[in-house]
Amino acid sequence: MTYLIDAWLDRPQPYVRILERDTGKVCASLEDEALEAFREQGGLDLHELSSNEPVVIKELVRNLFLFCYSQALHP
User: Fold this and answer.
1) Contacts of 9 (CB under 8 A, 6+ apart)
2) What secondary structure letter does DSSP report for 13?
3) For residue 44, what are the CA distances in angstroms to 24, 30, 31?
4) pLDDT at residue 74 greater than cutoff 80
5) Residue 50, Cβ density class (10 Å: 0-12 exposed, 13-18 middle, ≥19 buried)
6) Confidence (pLDDT) at 53
7) How do residues 15-70 score in pLDDT, each as one tens digit?
8) 17-42 burial, b if ≥16 CB within 10 A, otherwise e?
9) What is the C-alpha to C-alpha distance for residues 30 and 39, in angstroms, rounded to an integer?
């Protein structure tokens, strides 16, 4: 599968989502407190979001998935 990162960080309610490229389905989403916690843990670097390096993007998607799933396990 191929994923896209949809990030709107400069708006009143910022969010980061992972979309499946072929269907547009949202696979994972971070908003509000969860997004802030991800930032505080160092999981979100603005330079990584704008990178064209596949390895960097792949690692960011991996970290987003892991964080989202860990949040789901510990509400």
Assistant:
1) 16, 46, 49
2) S
3) 22, 11, 13
4) no
5) exposed
6) 92
7) 999 999 999 999 999 998 889 989 898 888 888 888 889 999 899 999 999 999 88
8) bbbeeeeeeebbebeeebbeebbeee
9) 11
Q: What is the 3-state secondary structure (H, E, C) of 18-62?
A: EEECCCCCEEEEEEHHHHHHHHHCCCCCHHHHCCCCHHHHHHHHH
What's the pLDDT at 18? 94
Site of tokens 């949040």: 71
What three-state secondary structure class fits 1? coil
